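Entry 0007
Protein: MFS transporter
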Amino acid sequence: MTDAGLRYGRASLGLSFGVQGVAFALLVTRIPAIQDQYGISDGLLPVFLAAVPILAGAGSVATEKVVARVRPSVILRWAQPLVLLALLGVGAGREMWHAAVALGVFGLSVGALDASMNMLGVSLQRAYGRSIMLGFHAAYSLGGIAGASLAWVGARYDMSLLASYLPVVAVLLPAALIGSRWYTEGNSPQEAGAGEAGAGGGLSFKLLLPLCLVMSFAYIGDSTVSNWSAKYLQDVLGSSEQLATVPYNVYMVTTLLGRTVGDLGVRRFGAVAVVRGGSLLAAGGFVVVAVAPGAWVGMLGFTMLGFGLCVIVPQTFAAAGRMFPGNSDAAVARLNIFNYVGFLVGSPLVGALGDAWSYRGAMLVPMVLVLATLVYARSFGPEPARYGGGHERPRTADVG
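Output (structure tokens):
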């Protein structure tokens, strides 16, 4: 693979992460409008919302099986357009079964998309010989900010879902298809894994389990911010309704900033140190949120959470690639399932504890789970200086 090919592959994959960030944000930030358009009751809404990550997990499982015969780049090339068309279907439907079908397709294709994107990211990082994974997830965060902003415009001007989604899909769909021409994979898992643990052999779930737990803990923390920050600031800390919308935006911006510079931190200090530092910062953020006397201190806590949590998920995928260099695609697909496990568990867990106990106390539960990442931090090493069974890094390691 030439240096130019790797650079084009890196740029096209970054575009794919960004497009996915836009699409997902446009869906989740317009849930009230989706509920109104289809007449979904409050009791039925959690079923629809839970179905998406459950089906996404199924899509990730299916991707693990399919990559034995089809390269991840092929899966990504077809999954991304399907996600965008499913989003458009959500906006265009009128009957409840339309929503069920569109969200079902969205969930399945998102699972395949997330898994294949991260497979390619791990592969490219292996080819580069240095940390670049956080940069891809920074592109996702940037897309999420753009998507949330577009959703705000749609809600502000009372636009229908179809009117909000159609122009975005009309731009992003051809861009994603054109960008897919340059999807690039690094060395094959078999080439990269010769002589190392897990190379070319079966995937040991026992070895992967610590990373699966870390992935779940990180997404429990993330879903706590996504689903409860506004309610917490308004109901517990007494902020205005307008101010209550700020913490999630601050969280997204700090996530973007942290991921933008995070790869430099990994190269300088190593993945283990960065993950440990992120875990401690995130745990401190939850403590600040839990004891905050007012809204502005609470926002400081959510800012700390953004900087802390943002490094954990990308490095978890990267660690799986290092742990199973000969079977990294399957490891990433298996690990990706626990993304959705954390998302499913986090919001109901905090809500139940908040109702039964207190929302301040509920914030301490994700704090403890994030701190548990410290126990498994060694799973994020060794650093990617040992590619090819202890041989020197590939010559492409200095690609810009």
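Curator remark: The domain at 205-380 is CATH 1.20.1250.20 (Growth Hormone; Chain: A;). Residues 239 and 296 are 9 Å apart (CA to CA).
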